[in-house]
């Protein structure tokens, strides 16, 4: 029993010593065995490794490819057009001993700070070199510029035990103070283009309106011309009908036109005519006793006859001189009736002379 009690602490101590002297190196890492801050060994192969307990320490570093994003860097190419460049780099720890000696206990954080300064310096140097313009940076030729930056950064980062694998630009922008001016210029250009489009549209609209107005004028003119032709043909047909009717019975036609003239002349209320009694206008209103008798009241023509007559007819006596249908020279004079004249007392010549 005493023996078991004595051996148990020894076993525990041995287990602790073995556990503190054995460590595992991951395949994604590299390890340094330090003794009082000095590098004693390097463990690069994955698996179990040993160290002296309580005297030696193990420091592990990532052996994978790491990424570093640089802060935005303002560069001035040879055309003096300032640009803000945002880049990133891919790197790995190539020599852990040299890396430890260069950065000390700062580790990865200290190494990335120093590597970021190297990258920014090389980006400014390459992009600001002679012959490099902003168009070159923004074109496909920037791949060659990135290769130059990578080579320069690799040479500068080698003393840190770091291998720079690649450097690439994520984005290239104008400075904030230049962005406002650029946006204002772009806005002005777009407004100018919009004004040009509006002007071209208005010009096209004016052409369409002018074409439409011309078409309207042409159509109206053509319609007026056709209407004048139709009106002329209708007038010719009317005159022909009147001529044919007049040729069939001139005396009746003259009588009919006289009645129509009487009706039109006496249609209004209180109509008064001041005409000589001997006028031909009253040929058909004379009494049977001769021209010196009393005039019978006018007999209006039937409404249907007045409505059927075309507009523009004149009295038989007056219209005959205005229209070819009623030419007095061509109209045969009606024969006077041989009726005995009424006996009238002759007026005394003395009274007529005295008056």
UniProtKB/TrEMBL annotation:
Stated membrane topology is: Single-pass membrane protein
Entry GO terms, CC: membrane
What sequence ranges are listed for the domain Band? 20-186
Q: Does the keyword Nucleus apply?
A: no
Q: Which processes are annotated in GO (biological process)?
A: proteolysis
Q: Which UniProt keywords apply?
A: Hydrolase, Membrane, Protease, Transmembrane, Transmembrane helix
User: What's this protein's family per the entry?
Assistant: Belongs to the band 7/mec-2 family. HflC subfamily.
The protein's GO terms of the molecular function aspect are: peptidase activity
Which function does this protein serve? HflC and HflK could regulate a protease.
Enumerate composition-biased segments (Low complexity). 302-332
Annotated region (Disordered) at: 287-355
Compartment list: Membrane
Q: What is its main location?
A: membrane
Extent of Acidic residues compositional bias: 333-355
Which InterPro entries did the record assign?
Answer: Band_7, Band_7/SPFH_dom_sf, HflC
Residue ranges that the Swiss-Prot or TrEMBL entry lists as coiled coil: none
UniProt cross-references to Pfam families, sorted A to Z: Band_7
Q: What is this protein called?
A: Protein HflC
Judging by the UniProt lineage, the source's domain of life is Bacteria
């Amino acid at each position: 029993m005493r023996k078991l009690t004595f051996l148990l602490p020894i076993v525990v101590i041995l287990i602790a010593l073995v556990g503190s002297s054995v460590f595992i190196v991951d395949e994604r890492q590299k390890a340094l065995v330090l003794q009082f801050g000095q590098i004693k060994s390097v463990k690069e192969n994955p698996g179990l490794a040993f160290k002296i307990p309580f005297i030696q320490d193990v420091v592990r570093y990532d052996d994978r490819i790491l990424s570093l994003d640089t802060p935005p860097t303002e560069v001035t190419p040879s055309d003096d057009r300032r640009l803000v460049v945002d880049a990133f780099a891919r790197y790995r720890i190539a020599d852990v001993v040299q890396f430890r000696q260069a950065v000390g206990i700062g580790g990865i954080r200290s190494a990335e700070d120093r590597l970021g300064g190297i990258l920014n310096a090389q980006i400014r140097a390459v992009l600001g070199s002679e012959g490099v313009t902003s168009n070159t940076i923004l074109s496909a030729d920037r791949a060659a510029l990135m290769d130059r930056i990578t080579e320069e950064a690799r040479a500068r980062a080698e003393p840190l035990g770091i291998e720079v694998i690649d450097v690439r630009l994520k984005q290239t922008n104008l400075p904030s103070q230049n962005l406002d001016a650029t946006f204002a210029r772009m806005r002005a250009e777009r407004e100018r283009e919009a004004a040009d489009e509006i002007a071209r549209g208005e010009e096209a609209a004016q052409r369409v309106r002018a074409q439409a107005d011309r078409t309207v004028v042409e159509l109206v003119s053509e319609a007026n011309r056709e209407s004048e032709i139709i009106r002329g043909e209708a007038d010719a047909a009317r005159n022909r009908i009147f001529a044919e009717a007049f040729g069939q019975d001139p005396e009746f036609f003259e009588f009919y036109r006289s009645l129509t003239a009487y009706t039109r002349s006496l249609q209004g209320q209180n109509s008064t005519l001041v005409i000589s009694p001997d006028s031909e206008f009253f040929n058909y209103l004379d009494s049977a006793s001769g021209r010196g008798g009393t005039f019978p009241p006018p007999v209006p023509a039937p409404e249907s006859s007045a409505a059927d007559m075309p507009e523009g007819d004149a009295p038989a006596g007056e219209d005959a001189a205005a229209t070819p249908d009623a030419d007095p020279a061509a109209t045969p004079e009606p024969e006077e009736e041989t009726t005995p004249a009424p006996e009238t007392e002759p007026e005394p010549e003395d009274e007529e002379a005295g008056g």
